[in-house]
Design a protein that fits this description.
single chain; about 190 residues; mainly alpha; Arc Repressor Mutant, subunit A; 2 domains; 8 helices; about 0% strand
């Protein structure tokens, strides 16, 4: 997709037409990622996949800070991160309105093949905090988790984006899940 890379560069350079041409090229893939992510959200969520795609796209190419993209993989990794931030911000807003709620054990981390972030607002916020701590210690592991949970990518699809072989990415995935489980349980236990 050389057109995507060229259009990303042009959009960052401030060419308004480039962003308009870019959206149709990446929209379907972003929509699939958002739909997969939104399928795991609460049924009464105020966002839908289309709104999530549009908000993420605006943050990626419509912001005040110019970003340089190293190609399609970098763009989609940034899209996953933007979707994560949007969903976390939404959960924080709902949490402020509702206040409280008991935290539970993070069983959704136990399944080796599952790569769907929690649907509960408190658990999503707990994951976000733990993922931030993991990123400080092991950035590559945090990026892999982010791609799997928030973009729904498989190990095989996420590995090249992170710059790893699938086999190494699988080992890092096992490590990251264990690290997050331990960190989140510590946070819950106080």
């Amino acid at each position: 997709m050389p057109d995507v890379t060229r259009l990303l560069s042009a959009a960052v350079a401030g060419e308004p037409q480039a962003a308009a041409e870019l959206l149709p090229l990446v929209y379907e893939e972003l929509r699939k990622l958002a739909a997969a992510r939104m399928a795991a959200e609460r049924a009464d969520h105020t966002l839908n996949p289309t709104a999530l795609v549009h908000e993420a796209f605006l943050r990626l190419v419509g912001g005040d800070k110019p970003q340089n993209w190293d190609g399609r993989g970098h763009f989609f990794a940034a899209a996953a991160k933007a979707m994560r931030r949007i969903l976390v911000e939404s959960a924080r807003r709902r949490r402020r309105q509702v206040h409280g709620g008991g935290l539970r054990r993070v069983d959704w981390l136990d399944d080796d093949e599952a790569a769907v972030a929690p649907t509960d607002d408190d658990e999503l916020l707990l994951l976000d905090d733990s993922l931030t701590r993991l990123a400080a210690a092991r950035p590559q592991a945090a990026q892999l988790v982010q791609l799997r949970f928030f973009s729904g990518l498989t190990i095989e699809d996420a590995a090249p984006v992170v710059g790893l072989s699938p086999r190494t990415a699988r080992r890092l995935w096992v490590f990251a899940r264990a690290w997050l489980r331990r960190d989140m349980e510590r946070s819950v236990d106080g």
